[in-house]
């Protein structure tokens, strides 16, 4: 499994964490998503390396922004 | 209809607003709930004056705190 960490901005509460987790978890091949609210770090475990644009789209769908990437 | 304004603390985003709105809307006799995220003010329209404890319980259930009241 590949673990990749992304930086997300705009999350302010547990609901935000849930929304990001749900959207990123829905990406094909994603096995595990861990979100740290305090730092905005989102660590994603996947079968294969992910296209960052699919992660960006999922984060955007949840209503937040991927930083750089 | 009676309109009463309560002060809620801890809401940080639109999800918080939705959670409080949903819980307070479920109180018997409540017709309308308006939440102002910036100020934390929750204005509730109801058929009859509400028991503040029922509002406090709903806000608590959503995960937030009613200030004084």
TrEMBL record, chains A, B:
<dbReference type="InterPro" id="IPR036163">
    <property type="entry name" value="HMA_dom_sf"/>
</dbReference>
<protein>
    <submittedName>
        <fullName>Heavy-metal-associated domain-containing protein</fullName>
    </submittedName>
</protein>
<dbReference type="Pfam" id="PF00403">
    <property type="entry name" value="HMA"/>
</dbReference>
<feature type="domain" description="HMA">
    <location>
        <begin position="2"/>
        <end position="67"/>
    </location>
</feature>
<dbReference type="InterPro" id="IPR006121">
    <property type="entry name" value="HMA_dom"/>
</dbReference>
<dbReference type="InterPro" id="IPR017969">
    <property type="entry name" value="Heavy-metal-associated_CS"/>
</dbReference>
<keyword id="KW-0479">Metal-binding</keyword>
